[in-house]
Amino acid sequence: MTPRSDGASDGASGHDAATYLGPSRRSWRALAGATRQLLAHPRAAAAILRARVTGKRLRARQALAALVGIDHRLALPPGILDRFPPAPAGPGDAIRLIGDGALVAGAPGRIAAAFAREPDLQALYGDALVQERHGGAVLPLLPPVFDADRLAALDYLGPVLACRRGALEPGDDPGSPAEAAFRIAERFGPGAIGHLPEILSVRRGASTATRGGETGRVPHHALVRDHLDRTGREGVGVAVVPDGLVQVEHPLPDERPLVSLIVPTRDRLDLLRPCLESLRGCTDWPSTEIIVCDNDSREPETLAYLRALEGEGRGHVVPWPGPFNFAAMNNAAAARARGRLLVFVNNDVEAFRPDWLSRLAREALRPDVGAVGAKLLDGEGRIQHGGIVLGTGGLVTHGHRHFPGDAPGYLGALRVTHTVSAVTAACLAVEAAKFRAVGGFDEAVFAVDFNDVDLCLRLNAAGYRTLLAPGAVLHHREAASRRWTREARARHAREIAALRTRWGSLLVQDPHYHPGFDPELSTHARLRAGFPEAGPAPLRRPGA
């Protein structure tokens, strides 16, 4: 339980990541909506103003984002390109460059040094500045570590991929960084591809991956199909969806396995009833069981509802008396569950699209995947959860929080399945065998907060990947039902300390999130002060 702490191509030639860098300025429509929110909530607006004038700028920025929403503010002035003149020469004969961008001064030496330091590194890509029209704004391309799932949806690697001469098979002549990366990952594993988080290249004009009239280029969806076939996944579906992204659909078993939907609660029938009714009435999965873990509900209406739930065979109730322990409640329900797949659902979450469970199951039943999370929308229809990002907001935060509910997200993060460090247990799917293999939620150390983060990180450490599947969309009402008593604050402080002790090295910088973003606001919204900073940056690799 984590605390609260377009233009598209036609799909024929693949999607370029610059399409999903996000808008550079707030539209008049968004500005008008923000003004309405401020006028409709005068107390909140006054609190934001007080925080601002008393010097509490960060608190004011975060409160404003929560009240009126947020979007990308990433555009840089055209003059920024003057700081990055082209490199006079490449990185040497031992390194091959693939792509349509130009290396900047100093980049060849940094690329060559990275290969020299890490003998098993076969390819690397860096950050880029993209100017699609002369004199126009410059957008930064700040990619995460290598992720084949995200790469299948769109080519996010940027204008240039550098690789060793021997990284590709003799005769291979890839036409794009994505094609080369797929082949190198197949041959050496994803860990052989690194990301250097600094500006290595500049691209002026549209990418050849999306420019009309190009010939000789293999469409991106065809590259993905070839990659899947070469890796023995002929049964995986590939389709170009209306926004030009490539959708990869992993097959489900012919006989759908039983799924256990686990919902912890204490009274709050106003939340529980619509939650369970939505799980039963808006889920297209043929075989489910509902397990409610009840933590000392006392209201007569709630008790009558739970008795009827069991008496009518609509669900099972697992009593959990005593102090509130979210992790222990879920563990107790999971021990009673019969399903191959466990889906943990908060009692303030509601399904409204019937395919939400099948979309989670397609990912969670993959052998190399651990936890899978959904995209959650808050009461205003904005993003409440788009994956969990480590090292932001002081500790962890939800990705793209407060963005519009229909936003594509940075590099398509709110549209495409991709790897993240963790997801919230407000809606989390995981195979029962994998959950039990790592010991379930740590109820002794993380009774209430961060138990989902800890679970995902332990699954990651065991060799499974955590995915966000944003095609699965649910509402999260996020009711403020918890009281911050003195004991609760002390417990919360202990759990923060425990998270830092256990996972402190990962909390420094999330590998799936770029250090160039402002770490103190909603993720992917603003660039870090002084960006782009000069100086060497450590190479990032999957699993490192």
Which labels suit this protein?
single chain, 544 residues, six-stranded mixed β-sheet, 30% helix
How do the helices and strands line up, and which of them pair or pack?
Layout: H1 28-40, H2 42-53, H3 57-68, E1 95-99, E2 102-103, H4 107-117, E3 123-131, E4 139-141, H5 148-153, E5 160-164, H6 177-188, E6 193-204, H7 220-230, E7 237-240, E8 246-249, E9 259-265, H8 269-281, E10 288-294, H9 300-311, E11 316-319, H10 326-336, E12 341-345, E13 349-351, H11 356-364, E14 369-377, E15 383-385, E16 388-390, E17 396-398, E18 418-420, E19 427-431, H12 432-437, H13 451-461, E20 465-476, H14 486-507
Parallel strand pairs: 3-6, 9-10, 9-12, 10-11, 14-20
Antiparallel strand pairs: 1-5, 2-6, 3-4, 3-5, 7-8, 12-19, 13-20, 14-15, 14-19, 16-17, 18-20
Helix pairs in contact: 2-3, 6-7
How would you portray this structure in words?
- By secondary structure, the protein is α+β, with helices and mostly antiparallel strands.
- 30% of the residues lie in helices and 20% in strands.
- It contains 14 helices and 20 strands.
- The strands form four sheets. Strands 9, 10, 11, 12, 13, 14, 15, 18, 19 and 20 form a ten-stranded mixed β-sheet that branches. Strands 1, 2, 3, 4, 5 and 6 form a six-stranded mixed β-sheet that branches. A two-stranded antiparallel sheet has the order 7-8.
- A hairpin with a 5-residue loop joins strand 14 and strand 15.
- Helix 6 packs parallel to helix 7.
- It is globular, with a radius of gyration of 24 Å.
- About 3% of the residues have low confidence.
